Amino acid sequence: MSQSKVALVTGAGRGIGRDIALRLSREGYACGLIARTKSQLDETAELIRKQGGRALVTPTDVSKREQVLASVEAVERELGPISVLVNNAGAYLKKRFTDIAEDEFDFQFKVNCYGPFFCTQAVVSRMVERGGGTVIFVLGSESRGGPAQYSAYTASKVAQRAIAESLAYEFGHLGVHAAALDVDGAVDSERVREAMPDVDPSWFVSPERICEEIVHLVNQPKSSWTFQVDLRSYAQWRPRVAPKKKA
Ligand SMILES: NC(=O)c1ccc[n+]([C@@H]2O[C@H](COP(=O)([O-])OP(=O)(O)OC[C@H]3O[C@@H](n4cnc5c(N)ncnc54)[C@H](OP(=O)(O)O)[C@@H]3O)[C@@H](O)[C@H]2O)c1
User: How far is CA 122 from the centre of its chain?
Assistant: First the structure.
């Protein structure tokens, strides 16, 4: 059964999510764009239109189920049935364990765990009814556990990975491909280069290759689906080595 080329990308206002939306658009997908900041989503949509694609801006907080449901309705009404969901939106916290407040701990779970739960729940049954789809979870190094000062973020990402794996087993035979894309390291961006000015840029994970993996996962045939992809640069194998300094 041929599927409609409509993708829903969360966290599409900037960073990796924007790159993913632009790349899926170049693959022929109309893109529903989710994040809280409308102005950033508008910028992404404009970039998509400039390259000849279609996009719908739906400002949404993924941690609010009603907002997620409304966004999915709007995207399906305006663009068509969603066949690809990329759960990319993320909250991040680096803090000493003893300093983490309860609401900060909650917030990590609300965005990184409840968010993908709400988004996936909103689309997965429809995908099954239509014969299939792909749900990708963008994870980070910490989804394997540790390191120091990442306990809240780590816990929420480990939980997100658990949802991904359970989903793969629960919905695979019904035609839905769930995959965990584990980006193990800092991703190259202006923000990261500014934060680590002395580090050789080749040390960072390339956003283009992340997008390449997304396209690869989306296009895999049913007979041979990947569940887990670990993507890391040559310098970031464990145990971590000191960042390579610029020459
Ligand atoms: N950057 C890295 O080095 C790196 C490495 C490994 C894994 N990752 C993972 O990759 C993903 C994207 O990271 P990034 O660096 O591109 O992040 P980013 O630049 O901070 O962008 C995050 C995006 O998610 C959106 N977002 C945050 N909270 C949201 C919420 N409650 N509801 C809806 N949207 C929300 C943000 O928009 P608003 O704030 O406007 O909502 C923004 O569009 C994350 O899941 C992260 O864990 C990143």
Answer: 16
Q: According to the CATH classification, is domain 6-231 in 3.40.718.10?
A: no
Nearest atom (ligand 1) to Cα of 12: 43
User: What pLDDT was estimated at residue 1?
Assistant: 47
Please tell me the distance between residue 231's alpha carbon and the centre of ligand 1 in angstroms.
Answer: 17
For the CA of 35, the closest atom of ligand 1 is 34
Instruction: Find out whether the beta carbon of 90 lies less than 6 Å from any atom of ligand 1.
Output: yes
Whole-number pLDDT of residue 233 = 86
Ligand 1 within 6 A of CB of 187 = yes
Sites in the chain below the pLDDT cut of 50: 1
Check: pTM over 0.85? Answer yes or no. Answer: yes
d(CA 116, CA 185): 21
What is the number of alpha carbons within 13 Å of residue 103 lying toward its C-beta? 0
